[in-house]
Design goal:
The protein is α/β, with parallel strands linked by helices. It has two domains: 306 residues, Nitrilase/N-carbamoyl-D-aminoacid amidohydrolase, CATH 3.60.110.10; 328 residues, Rossmann fold, CATH 3.40.50.620. The chain contains 24 helices and 22 strands. The strands form five sheets. Strands 1, 2, 3, 4, 5, 6 and 17 form a seven-stranded mixed β-sheet that branches. Helix 13 crosses helix 14 and helix 18 runs parallel beside helix 23.
């Protein structure tokens, strides 16, 4: 059998564009003599569409495109992902089993399904299943972790089996694909159906793949919309190796087709890198898609499965994150429905964050679509102002400097004319005065410049600052997109070096903005800091706080109890991925200083949820991003009794010492 893996960019909520791309790939596959072409999961609609999946008018619109694909299946088998709405009346009609058949939420049933057509009609099953529509196989395992919400919207294959008194073994049947006058049973599954280890049934993995093989499938095709995360392809390779081991000698060729592009849920922009792969009888990759984030028709023939396995070479972590951010920025065009990439206005302070964002924008949309503005006050040094101009010149972007002292002073003077509570307090004499400049930059300058030029403006905050609340609401929290808000400050420095070395191959981001390995700056460099008042320095302990934020916002969350236990065990270096020198550099080998700082970080993270829920969408680059990935509640912090007991033990220590086994 000759199979084509149609790795395509899926444009969310644009079925016409997706159909056009699919039809072009089908025609190419026909010219190549392909027997079966497989497209990704939900390739008509897009995957992360939120409550659009509650709108039956739109779902039926998505389903209208099935007819075009059915017609295109003459001379070829086509498998692709789309939604299916199955009302109670429709279920009663085609099953002959009258009775209530609701979705779990009382609405009509909806399936995240794979459709299989060949020669203008739905493909037949090896064994007919009355409980399922012809040519359609619903997804069985419905994820509800991270930003996945399949359980919220869709009804599973196993749920259908239960409704009709069947087992999963009875309902999961391969389809018959005609090849050279014969029929080949092929099992089709959807994305999560291969990630079986965490789904249990009768004490074992709920292995849909194995069931399909036992039911006669001679090949498995998995259609996916699997988001990029670092190392995901290698992790998937291990999962398919697990499936092969579970099946023993009966495993069959396994085809995995994934999409490219990006979706969003309003708070997170999630990218899809492709990574379509064919696996042999031992679950080893034997053919890989050529490049991440690129559309491709990958053709696999029988002879390929007899070739030796290929080695998957992964890019370095920061390179993969760079690719994801570029794809995420380019997705904004699809978010807005624009015909071309929008213009961007960026506040260019002369610091590392805005420099990196400007460089990313240039790579994503081009220098001609980026306008930079520097907005200094009397607190901004000549060093940073000069750096901003240098960065703009190096990138070849439009640049202007707009001093804002007069606006700041006028705003403060206006507010201080009024005394609402009789206290005679003055905004200009308060600590809050420094936030006025940030608000004027975001609200009065950047947003109005964006309006003038029909552009969008960026949020330049990084994850460390976002976590700790070092951003001003209605100032630098604003923007249309936050390109680096899922990168810690440590990663921003790393990305700056990568941009200079590997992307631009020149010093577009001044080296004077990048510290040494212990995050120290020389006197001739520009240290990171907000410059909102005289001699202001950052309270963020670079490197160290980045590691704490990563740990406390990880997918497997590390708690204050975990961190203080590591301190007692002398295992901070091992668990946080930092050096003893960095711990000493920030004085964290002093137990009292460590405890005070840890509690400051914990309280800052929980105390600034109210800012994060108002922030613009960010591009996901970590295993757990703020937004709809890490779902937060605006509540006060709670200290556990165990933490309090561990805290007392730490305060009785003289000094932190790394454990001998770790030091060795």
């Amino acid at each position: 059998m000759k199979v084509a893996l149609a790795q395509m960019e899926v444009v969310p909520n644009q079925p016409g564009k997706n159909l056009e791309a699919m039809l072009a790939m089908i025609e190419q596959a026909k010219r190549e003599g392909v027997d079966l072409i497989a497209f990704p999961e939900l390739s008509i609609s897009g995957y992360l569409l939120g409550d659009i999946f509650y709108r039956e008018d739109l779902l039926r619109e998505f389903m209208c495109f099935n007819e075009e694909l059915r017609k295109a299946s003459n001379g070829i088998a086509i498998a692709y992902g789309n939604v299916m709405v199955d009302t109670e009346a429709e279920i009663n009609a085609w099953t002959g089993v009258n009775g209530p058949h609701p979705n779990k939420d009382g609405r009509s049933r909806k399936y995240n399904a794979v459709y299989v057509f060949q020669n203008g009609k739905p493909a037949e099953r090896l064994r007919q299943v009355k409980a399922l529509p012809d040519g359609i196989e619903p997804k069985h395992l419905l994820p509800d972790y991270r930003f996945f919400d399949d359980e919220r919207y869709f009804f599973s294959l196993g749920g259908i089996a239960k409704d009709f008194g069947m087992t999963l073994e009875e309902i999961a049947q391969p389809f018959l694909i005609e090849v050279g006058g014969q029929t080949v049973p092929v099992g089709f599954e959807v994305c999560e159906d291969l990630w079986v280890a965490e789904y249990r049934r009768n004490g074992e993995a709920e292995n849909v793949t194995n069931i399909l093989i036992n039911n006669g499938a001679q090949m498995i095709v998995n259609v996916s919309s699997s988001p990029w995360t670092f190392g995901k392809n290698s992790t998937r390779d291990r999962r398919i190796k697990f499936l092969a081991e579970e099946s023993g000698d009966s495993f069959v060729p396994f085809i995995y087709v994934n999409r490219t592009g990006a979706d969003n849920n309003g708070k997170n922009i999630i990218t899809f890198d492709g990574g379509s792969t064919a696996y042999d009888l031992k679950g080893r990759p034997i053919k890989l898609s050529a490049a991440p984030y690129k559309a491709e028709l990958l053709i696999v023939e029988d002879a390929d499965f007899r070739q030796p396995p290929v080695e998957r070479v992964e890019k370095p972590r920061i390179a993969q994150k760079y690719d994801a951010i570029i794809e995420g920025i380019r997705h904004v065009k699809n978010m807005t429905g624009a015909a071309e990439q929008p213009m961007y206005v960026i506040g260019l302070s002369g610091g590392i964050d805005s420099a990196v964002v400007a460089a990313l924008l240039v790579q994503a949309v081009g220098a001609d679509k980026v306008l930079a503005v520097n907005m200094p006050t009397r607190f901004n040094s000549d060093k940073t102002k000069d750096a901003a101009a240098q960065i703009a010149a190096s990138l070849g972007i439009g640049y202007v400097q707009i001093p804002i002292d007069d606006l700041v002073n006028a705003n403060i003077a206006l507010i201080d004319k009024f005394d609402l509570d009789g206290s005679s307090r003055k905004l200009g004499e308060s600590d809050y005065a420094e936030n006025v400049a940030a608000k004027i930059r975001g609200t009065a300058i950047l947003s109005n410049l964006a309006g003038k030029y029909g552009a969008l403006f960026t949020n330049n905050g990084n994850k460390t600052e976002v976590a700790l609340g070092y951003a001003t609401l209605y100032g630098d929290v604003d923007g249309a997109i936050a390109p680096i808000a899922d990168l810690t400050k440590r990663e921003v420095f790393e990305l700056a070096g990568y941009l200079n070395r590997e992307v631009f191959r020149s010093e577009v981001i001044p080296e004077k903005l990048i510290p040494d390995g212990l995050f120290r700056f020389r006197d001739d460099q520009i240290p990171s800091g907000p410059e909102l008042k005289d001699k202001q320095t950052s309270q963020i302990k670079l490197g160290y706080h980045c590691a704490l934020v990563e740990a406390m916002t990880a997918y497997m969350i590390k708690t204050p109890e975990d961190i203080i236990q590591w301190y007692l065990d002398g295992a901070m270096e091992e668990n946080l991925g930092i050096s003893t020198a960095l711990i000493k550099r920030w004085g964290m080998n002093d137990p009292e200083a460590f405890v005070n700082d840890l509690e400051w970080v914990v309280n800052r993270i929980q105390g600034n949820v109210f800012k994060r829920v108002q922030a613009p969408p960010l591009i996901v680059t970590s295993p757990t991003a703020f937004g709809y990935d890490r779902r937060e509640s605006i509540v006060s912090n709670l200290t556990t009794r165990r933490y309090t007991a561990l805290r007392e033990q730490v305060l009785r220590m003289e000094r932190y010492t790394v454990a001998e086994a770790i030091a060795a």
